[in-house]
């Protein structure tokens, strides 16, 4: 879908700085951050690299799971971590 409509919002210099700082924490442009917030999403701060290393390790363990039950449990935990820490929340 082509983006051809613009919305302009006036803010104070302090408000702009705060919005830009929050957008940077989430790894988003200011425009994307404001758009997500306006649409009811709560962008999350970019998690530390250690979280990704742990997720990768859990994924490896899931591939070596010795039973379907264990594989399913690991998969559930991976999905929960992804939803809680990586995906934007819908408020």
Radius of gyration: 18 Å
Would you report the number of β strands?
2
Order of strands across the main sheet: 1-2
Kindly name the structural category. Answer: mainly alpha
Proportion of residues in helical segments: 55-70%
Architecture blueprint of SSEs:
Layout: H1 13-25, H2 30-38, E1 41-42, H3 49-63, H4 68-86, E2 89-90
Antiparallel strand pairs: 1-2
Descriptive terms for the model:
91 residues, 4 helices, two-stranded antiparallel sheet, mainly alpha
Offer a concise description of the structure.
The chain is mostly helical and 91 residues long.
Structure description:
By secondary structure, the chain is mainly alpha-helical. Helices cover 62% and strands 4% of the residues. The chain has helices at residues 13-25, 30-38, 49-63, 68-86; strands spanning 41-42, 89-90. A two-stranded antiparallel ribbon has the order 1-2. The longest helix has 19 residues, at 68-86. The two termini are 25 Å apart. The mean pLDDT is 87.
């Amino acid at each position: 879908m082509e983006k051809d409509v613009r919305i302009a919002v006036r803010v104070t210099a302090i408000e702009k700085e705060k919005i830009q700082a929050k957008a940077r924490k989430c790894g988003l442009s200011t425009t994307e951050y404001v758009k997500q917030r306006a649409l009811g999403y709560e962008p999350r701060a970019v998690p530390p690299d250690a979280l990704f290393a742990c997720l990768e390790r859990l994924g490896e363990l899931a591939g070596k799971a010795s039973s379907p039950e264990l594989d399913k449990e690991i998969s559930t935990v991976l999905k929960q971590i992804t939803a809680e820490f990586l995906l934007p929340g819908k408020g």
